[in-house]
């Protein structure tokens, strides 16, 4: 069995009550895709910034997966016009 390892980078930034995460996967000659996620602290929640990291990162990873899947399907269908870097972004909470 041949094993491969791909690394995903997650960058997290916080601005007040908002936490933004960006997950990126780049494998030369295979795929380059990223996803973004957002989390917002509720008005009744305690001020613990790290708590927003997990949902924002999870959403970014989920969108990265969706984007990678869309890109691979596009490539397999042979539609060369759709073979480009794909960024999936949603700021919904």
UniProtKB/TrEMBL annotation:
SUPFAM superfamilies: Rv2632c-like
Basic and acidic residues composition bias: residue spans: 72-85
Entry-linked InterPro entries: Rv2632c-like (IPR015057), Rv2632c-like_sf (IPR038070)
Gene3D superfamilies recorded: Rv1738
A Pfam family per the record: Rv2632c-like
Start and end residues of each stretch annotated as Disordered: 66-93
Superkingdom of origin: Bacteria
Protein name, UniProt field: DUF1876 domain-containing protein
